[in-house]
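Chapter review. Work through the record for C2 domain-containing protein before attempting the end-of-chapter questions.
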Amino acid sequence: MSSKRFSTAPMASSNTVPKPSRTTQHTHFSHRWSSRDTSSPYPGETPVVILRMQVLSCQDLEASDSNGFSDPYVIVYGLGKRYQTPVCERNLNPVYESKDATFDFPIYKSLLHKPCTLKFVVWDKDRFSDDYLGEFALPVDKWFKGTALAFNDPNNRPFFVNLASSRRTTTVRGTVLIKSGFVQPPDSKGLLDFGQTYNTLILAPPVGAIVLEICGAKNLPKWPNMVHMGWDMDPFVEVSIDNKIVGTTSVIQHSRNPVWEKQLCFPLHKQDLSFPIQLTVIDRDKLSKNDYVGVANINIAQLIEIAPKKDPKTGLYPDIVLTMHEFERALSPIRYPTKVYTPTPTITYRACYQPYDALLQQARQEE
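Structure tokens for C2 domain-containing protein:
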């Protein structure tokens, strides 16, 4: 996609920066998490299908205890459920009994717009505080390896997934062996076509794409350095949707008014529409944990509202040139939720939404 297909259209109404209130700042994250945790199917609704996930073993885990071993267990959560395997004491290659490590995740039609990602976290059981041994996420398009979707299909083989670390100061290693597959809900009538169910209901194509350019920030706070002899700020931006990171900028050293000019393009799925795109400004610290400076939300519904529209007669998009709209947003504090920055720090970005069928139309025209 060449740059000449982009145009920039500033929006005067979106450049106003409202003064953040203490109430808004304090409830920003609590509202987000509470709305997700209380989601549930309709009363009496039966699941469309059940995803069965089995944790068979782990291999080559990090030794967390002084005796050269760990006492690992695995937590699996997502789709409104949370499960845990037993603890295997003094073991870096634990093997779990199938009856203790096979978990069912009902999938309801009314909740298909919610994120369909499972998360696996490996912990070392400790007397006082469990130690983190790594994790991985399994989005809906990574649930299976191969074409066998039924859990009891002889061709459905287990597969390994590498552990990764979401903690910048923690190094992990090892793999987890899992098996996944669909099973018939107990109250369903007739045999399900698992392939059709997966493709039409769960593995839906993106509804569109977000084109985003992180321009810069202004008036970031003066935070004291480690020796408290002055201030330091090495900011970068993390872009995420529902806690899933979709992109980051570079780090600008020693700047309260950084300029990034970072361009991103990422798909948008139906389940993403329930959440804002979050721009989180972070102060990078080499010798300690990074500090969260502030966050601003991008309203996806607003971008969709100003996106290109189909011609009702032809069913085609008369203008598929991407028009980038510029916004400036105030940053709500994260480190001190009740604090109001003075002056108010802001972040500037340009963004647009492109419908999926408009992208297909553009691809056909460029062939």
